[in-house]
Amino acid sequence: MELHWADWMAAEALGTRGTLHRVATGITPSGPIHLGNIREVMTADLVYRSLQSKNIDPDLIYIADSFDPLRKVYPFLPESYRQYIGKPLAHIPDPQGCCDNYAEHFLQPFLCALEELGIKPRVLRADRLYKEGAYTNVITEAMSCREKISSLLSEVSGREMPLNWSPLNALCRQCGRLSGSAITGFRPEQHQVDYICDCGYEGTADYSIGEAKLVWRVDWPARWKALNITMEPFGKDHAAPGGSYDTGVRISREVFGYEPPFPMVYEWIYLKGQGAMSSSTGVAVSIEDLLELIPPQVVRYLIARARPEKHIEFDPGQALINLLEEYDKLERIHFGEEPADEASAAQAGRLYSLSQPDGEGEARQMRIPFRHMVVSAQIARGSFGRLKEVLSRSGYEQALQDEERTRREMEYALVWLDKYAPPAFIFEVREKLPKEAGLLSAAQRRALLQVAERLEGYNPDAKELESMLYTVAGESGLKSTQLFQAIYTVILGQKSGPRAAPFILSLERDFIVKRLRQAAATEEEKA
Ligand SMILES: [Zn+2]
Ligand SMILES: [Zn+2]
């Protein structure tokens, strides 16, 4: 059997780095955290779970880069936030005013999402790590070797480094910004640096209490050593030749004497038709929005099924149905309800278990196919009481044993219909016979009457009903599509709709019989 990529990576890391593992993941909470960011955390979580399954006792940490400075006024920020550019995210007010600071505002919903996804890292905040002194020793080392780091950076990245370059930015006591200061003195025994800020202020910062921060390219390898990180996923931008992983590796080995973590490079998640997800461009589906649309196990599945180096295209439109159907199929194979050879069954089983938030998965329960739920929820006009009737009529009464879950599935369908569904999936059962019924031909009206008569006192399943519709169409000298169009016209006022047989079964029998008879009795409009 071909190993799942997470199991392969875990085995590789065990072979090269020994058995003590701390898997790290980090995201800057500078904006809404989206599906693309989730790939980072999921990659770490999947490998972490794989290590656990090998009886290793790994650690999973998530570092919120809350000490990073605000880089620009993002599209979702008011213009007044220009004054905060350069200040650490943890020192900037929450744009909505609800949380302690800017970083927490974007962090909190993300942490809730992680919980729903069953990802349970130890959460660390970079601003606190700096304030608590976790970086003190590595900062001293970096400052002591600043010329060496400068020449490494210039050699590996090809960047021209300024003459008095420093790996450290002081947090200016006057303007509160991290960027814009030049370091003019360094006293390692007191953990102090002197600086001149471009706001004009000259002062001294104590870097053991969070009054300074390493620049990104040094911060990253410093963190590996300070936090003992052995495995870490990162986006392909950092993996480019001469990029921050390359420089990090050299700095880690040659300055900090620390073996860099086992790299797990991942590709972007693209939003269909819009490009790579990014919160700074606004092309993104936030993780909160996503979890209102699909269950957490499908989010996990979407990421777990693709090797990290493959790009993922997420299409919340019509293709969402395929994604959900593929997941349903995986579930059927896992539960032995769909034949598969031994190897693919084993692979499906592994993928299924990695997709479960709790790692185990629920006992097999009847799930309503999303496509059917989309139809049913519209017939029920969003009412759960009516939905239960629709589901009973259409042969899904078993699903009502778990009302909680069925209600959630209805909510997913309603969100999809409201925000993402293509127009072809949206319909409304008309309370009265639509005027379009007047356009039906005499043959179509005769066929509708036939269907009505045969439906009375007859309880077909979807298959039987479908073959009955074909028979009636044939006997009335119609193509089947002409009969289906007639049915949609008299119920929905449009020529197309969901698959006819299950749709008819989902409607109240009295209603449909009455409606077909009424339509059959109308006069053909003389055009
Ligand atoms: Zn808030
Ligand atoms: Zn300043």
Protein architecture, described:
Strand 2 (59-64), helix 3 (102-116) and strand 3 (122-125) form a beta-alpha-beta unit. The N and C termini lie far apart (66 Å). This protein is elongated. It has helices spanning 5-17, 35-53, 102-116, 126-131, 136-144, 146-157, 216-227, 236-239, 244-254, 287-291, 296-304, 319-334, 342-355, 370-379, 384-393, 403-419, 442-455, 462-475, 480-492, 500-506, 509-521, and strands spanning 22-27, 59-64, 122-125, 168-170, 181-187, 192-197, 202-206, 212-214, 231-235, 262-266, 269-271, 275-276, 312-314. It is built from 21 helices and 13 strands. The longest helix is centred in the N-terminal third of the chain and has 19 residues, at 35-53. The strands form five sheets. The chain has a three-stranded parallel beta sheet with strand order 1-2-3. The protein folds into four domains: 1-129 and 267-350, Rossmann fold (3-Layer(aba) Sandwich); 136-143 and 158-214; 370-425; 435-521, Arc Repressor Mutant, subunit A (Orthogonal Bundle), CATH 1.10.10. The structure holds zinc ion (ZN) (2 copies). The site of one zinc ion (ZN) has 7 residues, from loops.
